[in-house]
Design brief:
heterodimer, A: about 80 residues, mainly alpha, Non-ribosomal Peptide Synthetase Peptidyl Carrier Protein, Chain A, B: about 400 residues, alpha/beta, Peroxisomal Thiolase, Chain A, domain 1, 2 domains, twelve-stranded mixed sheet, two-stranded antiparallel ribbon, 12 helices
Chain lengths: ~80, ~400
């Protein structure tokens, strides 16, 4: 599964939302009304899934799926 | 004084979810106390309770929300929905700034808390759900009901041990009388059937350890009393000013006419043996209601099934009602399903309202030999009787006294 697919999978499993509700270019707040506590849970789950340290400041409820994919892709590509 | 109308009832309790099922089982005189099955409770000195099974069958709460809240908030959401539907109120049509929520709770949401705290010690901080911080504390149900319906008016959570929910209702009635709000969802919820909460209840003492006879274990005002049994549940009523309720042609079940509350101030657990402060709370409620003791048709008893609590309660009633104390029908229906701690007052109120509606004094299961004597106890079988005005008594540890006077509409 590609990165975006895995992110979607995590959001669907964690937040019990339907996959169709998630839109690539809409913020998580706009598409599924995510709140700040849900964001904490999502960031922790993404860190575990991709093995990369993520900051709640770089992934927020205003991030889109495309934004999150880019951030994680950059971390994976980073030599550190 | 202005009467406050009760226009909607929502109840989630061991005898039933919804007032029809609840009342049918209350009047039947069946017991809903059994051995705890939710977890292995055999090692606890007292391991029986009034439990609610299949809560989710009655719920419209989404899975997304359910994972963020404790059972006590879930029960409050179900009771709130039932109460609003019963009152035929569409909350979206109300001014959200003029709707309030007044709920009582004694323990908090321990199933969520203890599960996550276990993970904290096993997995470290990342093993803990971020929802824990907002799921466990006593005001969480008030917050969840507020978010669910977009309610934004003045609201409160009252923590006063077993008197919590009746105190919340009394407080709500006072706020409505000041015309600060249009309507209030008032009541309480409690979910003590969890490993840690049950441990606390056992440590506190006073629980019946008659585990081999769950249905007979809770015997208030009986010579063979040996403590109370816990139960879980929630009750919420819709309160409105009488004028507003009449104007919208609401069905009014009963009126809250008076409320009184006092503290014994003698011990951190026990009440005062003389019952004087409870008597003062009863008198205070009657005075506020402008109702004389002679007019009261029924008293819903607190009935903790512990010597000093039962004796002092009877003493207080005799102090206020004098020679009439032996005539007024009194009962303690919660012996059939358990003491819902912070939610027991509102469930007693709901039982009393239904008793008024159906002209039947509900029975006190397991009361065969009254001790002390001198009151007109309605024992194992309900009694047909017209109830026009009634008193509901709810008491918390350390001698918190809370008394409501209600009148049939």
């Amino acid at each position: 599964m590609d990165i975006k697919g895995r992110i979607k999978d995590i959001l669907v499993t964690l937040l019990k939302v339907r996959c169709e509700e998630l839109k690539d270019d809409l913020s998580l707040e706009a598409s599924i009304g995510i709140d700040s506590t849900e964001m904490v849970e999502v960031v922790i789950a993404l860190e575990k899934a991709f093995g990369k340290k993520l900051s709640p400041k770089e992934i927020t409820k205003f991030s889109t799926l495309n934004d999150i994919e880019k951030i994680i892709q950059a971390k994976i590509n980073s030599p550190q | 004084m202005d009467k406050i109308a009760i226009t909607g009832i929502g109840v989630v309790a061991p005898p039933g979810i919804g007032k029809r099922q609840f009342w049918a089982n209350i009047k039947s005189g069946r017991s809903f106390i059994k051995k705890i099955t939710r977890f292995d409770a055999q090692m606890y000195p007292a391991h029986i309770a009034g439990q609610i099974d299949e809560l989710e069958k009655y719920s419209t709460v989404s899975e997304r929300l359910l994972k963020k809240i404790d059972t006590f908030s879930h029960m409050a959401l179900i009771a709130a929905e039932m109460a609003l539907n019963d009152a035929e109120i569409e909350i979206k049509k109300e001014d959200p700034n003029l709707v309030g929520i007044f709920l009582g709770n004694a323990l908090g949401g321990w199933l969520y808390a203890e599960t996550e705290l276990r993970d904290l010690y096993i997995e470290g901080r990342e093993g803990v759900s971020p929802y824990l911080a907002s799921a466990w504390f006593p005001a969480a149900p008030q917050g969840q009901v507020s978010i669910y319906y977009g309610i934004k008016g003045f609201s409160k959570t009252v923590v006063a041990d077993r008197a919590s929910s009746l105190m919340a209702i009394g407080y709500a009635a006072k706020v409505l009388r000041k015309n600060k709000l249009n309507l209030i969802l008032a009541g309480g919820m409690e979910a003590p059937v969890t490993p840690y909460a049950l441990l606390c209840c056992n440590t506190y003492g006073g629980l019946s350890e008659d585990n081999e006879h769950p249905q007979e274990a809770y015997r208030p005002f009986d010579k063979r009393r040996c403590g109370f049994v816990i139960g879980e549940g929630a009750g919420i009523v819709v309160l409105e000013n009488m004028e507003r309720a009449k104007k919208r042609n609401a069905r009014i079940f009963a009126y809250i006419c008076g409320y009184g509350t006092t503290c014994d101030g003698v011990d951190r657990i026990r009440p005062a043996a003389d019952g004087k402060e409870l008597a003062r709370a009863i008198s205070m409620a009657l005075t506020e209601a402008e109702i004389s003791p002679e007019e009261i048709d029924y008293i819903s008893l607190d009935g903790l099934a512990i010597d000093i609590w039962d004796y002092s309660e009877v003493r207080a009633i005799k102090t206020v009602f004098g020679s009439r104390a032996k005539e007024i029908p009194v009962s303690c229906p919660k012996s059939s399903f358990g003491n819902l701690l912070g939610a027991c007052g509102v469930v007693d109120l709901i039982t009393t309202i239904l008793a008024m509606e159906y002209n039947l004094v509900p029975p006190t299961l397991n009361l065969t030999e009254p001790d002390p004597e001198g009151l007109n106890f309605v024992k194992e079988v309900g009694r047909e009787y017209y109830i026009g005005k009634a008193i509901v008594i709810s008491r918390g540890r350390g001698g918190i006294n809370s008394v409501l006077v209600i009148e049939k509409a």
